[in-house]
Amino acid sequence: MTYVVDTHTLLWALFKPDALSQGVKEIIGDRAIGVYVSAATFWEISLKYALGKLELKGAEPEDIPEAANKSGFEILGLDADVLSSYHRLVKTKHRDPFDRMIIWHCI
Asked: What Rg, from alpha-carbon coordinates, does the chain have?
């Protein structure tokens, strides 16, 4: 089984692990399970940080990819094929563009 975490899950894993459920902690901690982070997550972090909507205690957005790697997350890069086919994602009530890109990246 593989998992792709959203932005909140990554930030909680790195900065507030007590905010995660025990089940999520077990999945993230199990090195036999593939736990991924979309590159779109780092874009969201950087954008929200620049807008003052996200505070990173003791870190800058550019520190997060390395911290994610050290914590066992694998980073999924975005390529032209994923980005150019994004329009194929079925429209739903869920409108957050970052979450929708992560969903499309998973598909």
From this structure: 14
